[in-house]
Amino acid sequence: MAFRKWKMIAGAGFGAVLLSTLAGAARAEQPPNLPEISPTGADACFGRIYDAAHLKAHPHQKVARIFFFYGHDPVSRPNEEPAANQENSYNGFLTTTVRGAKKPEWASSWCNKSDPSDPSSGIGCGMDCDRSLASVKVDDKGKLLLSGLSPDVFLDPDASESMSKAEYAKQQLGSEDDNFKLDPMPAETCKAEFARIDPIDPALGDPLRVRLKPDQPFCYGRDYDDAHLKSHPKQMTRSIRVFRGPIELASFAADGDKANWPDGADIAVTVTTRKNGAKVTQTYSCQGEADQWRCAASSKMSNFSCDIAQKEIFLKRGANGTMMLANPNSSLAIVDLCSKAADGKTKSDDKVYRLESMPQSACAP
């Protein structure tokens, strides 16, 4: 089934199969503060699209489209993270599309004057991990001069060690990809360009954080018929329910913080296996992380007594009101979560579930 990839942050075990990193978490809005780039304080956009004649004359230039946006984050959009967890420091954003590519690459940065006390000092834009994005300057014609752009600006800091030399050379920018002169453009032009990176799917609707209220129950699930199970012989799950009922609601009402919803939200997952019809319920404690809920197995309402906090599942909004659940590491109670069978990554067909909204009675114990 087609759906947006899942991502892990800081090392829990989803692996490369289901994950990708959307570069940069959502950030709260912060107004620009460099009049050299934006005299009025409004979002400022600069860009250039190179024609075939230019690219033919510059064979070592890979960049066919380049845009620099100074202002409010043009990439992030409302997601699952509470506002209190969002950063607010990035104000410079670069996107380039190389020849033949279908989508742009992009990077975010902090842009500041080299010496705030010196009106003539230059402006530098820095990135995470003590990396530099570029130096920028607006000339007397209003064009943005962007220089000092590193060829590996879009690669991970350890890419030179983790990639072969050939792959590294292929993915970095060309030897002529620097000293760009960009024309001033409407802010909406840059926003449209950045929207090409990860187009919004209207069918996804509101994030789970908005769709599911902290003081309201919900029930999602799926029952698999014999035809489905026959075509998926390795699938152990016959039915699955994901819900918040009276117990979970009472727990959040007592200890939760609505301002940080869904952080601290408990959910329950009930699975019925095909082998012997065993029905097992496991509680998970969730937190918002980018565009997903990351939920760790909890000792509450658990059939198991070992330390299972490292067992995790991930929830995402699906198309047309569905919910996607990913189980990368045997995190569902298909087997005893304390047993050796629950170690390692799930090898069965019980990895990803597309769940439909159901009446609360369908999730009753």
Shape: elongated
The biggest sheet amounts to: 8 strands, antiparallel, barrel
User: Strand order within the widest sheet?
Assistant: 1-2-3-4-5-6-7-8
Find the count of extended strands (DSSP E, 2+ residues): 16
How much helix, percentage-wise, in residues?
Answer: 10-25%
N to C succession of SSEs: EHEEEEEEHHEHHEHEHEEEEEE
The rounded distance between the terminal residues' Cα atoms is: 30 Å
Structural class label: alpha+beta
Give the helix tally.
Answer: 7
- Percent strand equals 25-35%
Low-confidence blocks of residues: 1-29
Q: Over the alpha carbons, how many angstroms does the gyration radius reach?
A: 24 Å
What value does the average pLDDT take? 85
How would you characterize the overall build of this protein?
- The structure is a single chain.
- With about 375 residues, this protein is an alpha+beta fold.
- Helix content is about 15%, strand content about 30%.
- The protein has seven helices and 16 strands.
- The strands form two sheets. It has an eight-stranded antiparallel β-barrel with strand order 1-2-3-4-5-6-7-8. The chain has an eight-stranded antiparallel barrel with strand order 9-10-11-12-13-14-15-16.
- A hairpin with a 5-residue loop joins strand 14 and strand 15 (about 325).
- The longest helix has 10 residues, at about 245-255.
- The chain is elongated, with a radius of gyration of 24 Å.
- Residues about 1-30 have low confidence and may be disordered.
